[in-house]
Amino acid sequence: MEHSAASAPATLPYYVAFSQLLGLTVVAVTGAWLGLYRGGIAWEGSLQFNVHPLCMVIGMIFLQGDALLVYRVFRKEAKRTTKALHGLLHAVAFIIALVGLVAVFDYHKKKGYADLYSLHSWCGILVFALYFVQWLVGFGFFLFPGASFSLRGRFRPQHIFLGATIFLLSVGTALLGLKEALLFKLGTKYSTFEPEGVLANVLGLLLICFGVVVLYILAQADWKRPSQAEEQALSMDFKTLTEGDSPSPQ
């Protein structure tokens, strides 16, 4: 019984593999859209704007989704290693997304365009700020050794909920940006099934599918990472030393 509880559920690897196939396809289709219909990417000139959608898809969608799946994929590794990988993926995602934000603001400044007037931009700044705060708070509570066991336990449900919410908001914001980009360029031609519009619609569906699969994996209680015996012992020792009590069963 203990071995079956610790082993990965039979279907979990297939769902994880499917999520990775979807995620990589999303990145590839984003690159194809920018290359075929937007001229590619570059830091200088009119192509600088294209850095923004590519970085946001890689950082705030693909890598953020993978960071959320770390605790489902690495089920038997040391908890400290899994935590470090979870935090590292989020940090890399944040840095890549930051490059995307700098690119679009710099492009707007050079072109004399207004900033932060659209729903997409408002949602984007909100999501990016929440993501940064979530990472800082998560680092302080779960990676930094100063937080008490009970404090971590009380904050963990909020941390998990906020992580899934921010990921969902990231996918929604990407869809808003995609629609905005199409309307700016195609205008009324969007309704005539222009090839760019069709490809971008496919990209939008892929974004939704990736988000749904990731959230589905996270929602399965049986697929959560089981606590290892040494982790339970360390948690009990930590709480006994810091609070003079043993942790309550969960």
Question: In a few lines, what is going on in this structure?
Answer:
With 250 residues, this protein is mainly α. It is built from eight helices and no strands.
Keywords:
disordered C terminus, disordered N terminus, Four Helix Bundle (Hemerythrin (Met), subunit A), 8 helices, mainly alpha, 250 residues
Description:
The protein is mostly helical. The chain has one domain: Four Helix Bundle (Hemerythrin (Met), subunit A). The chain has 8 helices and no strands. The protein has helices spanning 2-6, 12-37, 51-73, 79-111, 119-143, 149-186, 195-219, 229-243. Helix 4 (79-111) packs antiparallel against helix 5 (119-143). The longest helix is centred in the last third of the chain and has 38 residues, at 149-186. The two termini are 19 Å apart. Mean pLDDT is 88; it is low at 1-5 and 233-250.
Oligomer: single chain
Structural class: mainly alpha
Low-confidence stretches: 1-5, 233-250
State which percent range the strand residues make up.
under 5%
* CATH topology name: Four Helix Bundle (Hemerythrin (Met), subunit A)
Rounded mean pLDDT is 88
Number of E-type strands: 0
Secondary-structure element series: HHHHHHHH
Global outline: globular
Q: Using the CA coordinates, give the radius of gyration.
A: 21 Å
CATH class type: Mainly Alpha
Query: Can you count the helices?
Result: 8
How many structural units, i.e. domains?
1
Distance between the termini: 19 Å
Helix content: over 70%
What characterizes the major β-sheet?
Answer: none
CATH architecture descriptor text: Up-down Bundle
Main location: membrane
GO molecular function: metal ion binding; transmembrane monodehydroascorbate reductase activity
Catalytic activity: monodehydro-L-ascorbate radical(out) + L-ascorbate(in) = monodehydro-L-ascorbate radical(in) + L-ascorbate(out)
Domain Cytochrome b561: 18-219
